[in-house]
Amino acid sequence: GHVSMATNSTVSVLDTGGGFSCQRLQQVLGSGESDDGEEEGAVEEALGKVRVFRVFDLLTSLSLLQELRDKVSSKVDAFHSNLHLVILDCVTGLVAPLLGGKQIQGHALMCQLATSLRRLASEHAIAVVYTNNMVSAGGFEGPGGTTTKTQTGGRGRLR
């Protein structure tokens, strides 16, 4: 099942490229449901448990992650009390403009983002998933080269 459909869990999506689509999410959520007329209501309920934040720069993302941590810590509402998944799609758009060139703080900000995601996960038992669309000829390579290879904090199993 899907996190937002099977439980009371909620999901925050940080969309950095404007590519998030409610229509596509609706298709994904509806793909495993029965065809007994309750599917539409279940999908609508699940969509209500997903909040999408459009972020286009690293500093805004860091600020939003801090705000999420604060709200989860204080349990300001049911959404934040039940937050169990944060998706950052796609990290490349945030860090690539800061790496190389004259941006000397890019690497430090990238590490700060990784630390912020890791703290959100470890302090509040929230699953954090980030996508990265950078691939080198030899396989996966993060936008920060070898730096992102050491940023994993655990293993997940998908069913």
TL;DR of this structure?
This protein has about 160 residues and is an alpha/beta fold.
Which terms summarize this structure?
disordered C terminus; alpha/beta; 16% strand; 6 strands
Description:
42% of the residues lie in helices and 16% in strands. Residues 155-159 have low confidence and may be disordered. It is globular. It has helices at residues 3-6, 22-30, 39-47, 58-74, 78-81, 91-95, 106-124, and strands at 10-15, 50-54, 83-89, 127-130, 135-136, 139-140. Strands 2-1-3-4 form a 4-stranded parallel beta sheet. The chain has a two-stranded antiparallel ribbon with strand order 5-6. Helix 2 packs across helix 3 (39-47). With 159 residues, the chain is α/β, with parallel strands linked by helices.
SSE order and pairing:
Blueprint: H1 3-6, E1 10-15, H2 22-30, H3 39-47, E2 50-54, H4 58-74, H5 78-81, E3 83-89, H6 91-95, H7 106-124, E4 127-130, E5 135-136, E6 139-140
Parallel strand pairs: 1-2, 1-3, 3-4
Antiparallel strand pairs: 5-6
Number of helices: 7
The chain-level structural class is alpha/beta
- Terminal residue distance: 8 Å
Mean pLDDT: 79
- Uncertain runs are 155-159
Beta-strand share of residues = 15-25%
* Strand order in space, largest sheet: 2-1-3-4
Find the count of extended strands (DSSP E, 2+ residues). 6
